[in-house]
Amino acid sequence: MGIRHLNADTSIEEVMEIIDQDAGVIIDNVLNQSQLNKIREELDPFLVNTKKGQDDFTGYNTRRVGALMARSPECRVLALDPLINDVSKKFLEPHSDGYQLHFTSAIDIAPGESEQILHRDRGVWGGYIPRKIETQLSTVWAITDFTKENGATQVLPGSHKWDRNREPLEEEICFAEMKKGSVFIYTGSVIHGGGANNSDKNRLGVFLHYAPSWLRQEENQYLSCPPHIAKDLTPELRALMGYSKGGYVLGFYSDPEDKNGELESVSPEKMFGDSKDKYGFINSADKLVSNSSERK
């Protein structure tokens, strides 16, 4: 079957069509060499010192670095990529009032690494969410070339529609092979896993995942990028990370040191002097009740 590739100027409609059919698609040549160099410069100081994984899932020859919104200005640009955010909105909002940045990680697979256990990312929440609700829209940005030999992601296209107990066959496994600067988009319901690195070079990817605004984030963005760092980010990025409300009373905060009542049960955006609050008002109590019972 294979993983389909699209050009960087492709339409969102074409991306969504393939996502619906295969649950994965590659957009070729999105980043230029200057952007790739900046990402390497920003991440290398952390990657060189981080410990390798300690089990079959995280990999014994794989290094993982998170907190990318705090550590890498260039990764912030990736997180706000217009096409990726348009796809996230269209894919996730049928079951949510909004979406959020869920997970950030740079994953460096070194030579000698074995293939990762095949899995679905939605498993991070256990089996509690009905499969008809999509929980994630994920991206892997290729900072180096991704090849079958150096550990390109294993993918089972179409497995998001399989019976939950169906086991993949070896010949059904495809590989997300792509040139550096490309991005692999996939869903939380497709079976996948890191590939084995049988080459003599490392394979580096930046992983940025998005989820409905009502789900607990896999990476705690408020500790990985605390307020004293987040204050210097753009309001758009802070809101995407969760420094905002996800509904009328979902995600408010109260400043424990505020004795004037100005920061009581307000949107986190006000922490940074931003008065914007998408969910600050409701039209009527009846509307709030009806919305809480509505099924999209």
Structure in a nutshell:
This protein has 296 residues and is of the alpha+beta class. It folds into 2 domains: 5-212, q2cbj1_9rhob like domain (Jelly Rolls), CATH 2.60.120.620; 248-296, no CATH class.
Would you give an account of this structure?
The protein is α+β, with helices and mostly antiparallel strands and 296 residues long. It folds into two domains: 5-212, q2cbj1_9rhob like domain (Jelly Rolls, Sandwich); 248-296, no CATH class. Helix content is 24%, strand content 16%. It has helices at residues 12-22, 33-47, 68-71, 73-79, 82-92, 221-224, 227-230, 235-241, 285-293, and strands at residues 5-6, 24-27, 62-65, 99-109, 137-142, 154-155, 174-175, 183-187, 192-193, 203-212. Strands 1-2-8-5-10-4-3 form a seven-stranded mixed β-sheet, covered by helices on one side. The two termini are 32 Å apart.
Number of domains: 2
The CATH topology assignment of the largest domain is: Jelly Rolls
The fraction of residues assigned to DSSP E strands is 15-25%
Tell me the helix content: 10-25%
Distance between the termini: 32 Å
Shape: globular
The chain-level mean pLDDT equals 94
Query: What's the CATH architecture of the largest domain?
Result: Sandwich
Q: In which order are the strands of the major sheet placed?
A: 1-2-8-5-10-4-3
- Order of H and E elements: EHEHEHHHEEEEEEEHHHH
CATH superfamily of the largest domain: q2cbj1_9rhob like domain
Q: Look at the structure and give the CATH class of the largest domain.
A: Mainly Beta
Rg over CA atoms, rounded to whole Å, is 20 Å
The total strand number stands at 10
Low-confidence stretches: none
Structure annotation, total helices: 9
